[in-house]
Amino acid sequence: MVRPRTNIGKCIVNGCDKDAEKEMMCSKHYSRKWKYGNENFISINERYKDTDKCLVIGCNNKPDAQKLCPKHYHNFMYHKRKGNLETISEYLKKKTGDN
Question: Are 36 and 71 in the same domain?
């Protein structure tokens, strides 16, 4: 049996006007508080979701993580795990041929 929703007002987080569901917060902010201990936590993916293109020159794909598209992010992580580079800046220099 599905429990009916009860309206307990608006979310208490500043700037949020969604309906509150648990502990006076909307589901997004409640989930963040439960998972990260902070209702205002913003993941890397959310932080860069408004960026329109991957940082790699010539790539027009939408970025997924750390301003890189999934293809370039996984390639960066592969090289990082191998110890070939440490930062995204190093990866971008390698991709453009600058040494």
Answer: no
Give the separation between CA 71 and CA 75, rounded to whole angstroms. 6
Nearest to 39 by CA among 47, 29, 24: 29
What contacts 19, CB < 8 A, 6 or more positions away?
A: 7, 9, 10, 11, 26
Residue 30 sits in the same domain as residue 58: no
Domain around 18: 1-41
Position 99 pLDDT exceeds 70: no
Q: Give the residue carrying structure tokens 């790539």.
A: 59
Angle at the Cα of 69 (from 63 to 75), degrees rounded to 5? 150
Give the end-to-end CA distance of the chain in Å, rounded to a whole number.
63
Same domain, 9 and 50: no
Q: What is the pLDDT of residues 77-98, one digit of tens each?
A: 999 999 998 888 888 888 877 5
Domain count across the chain: 2
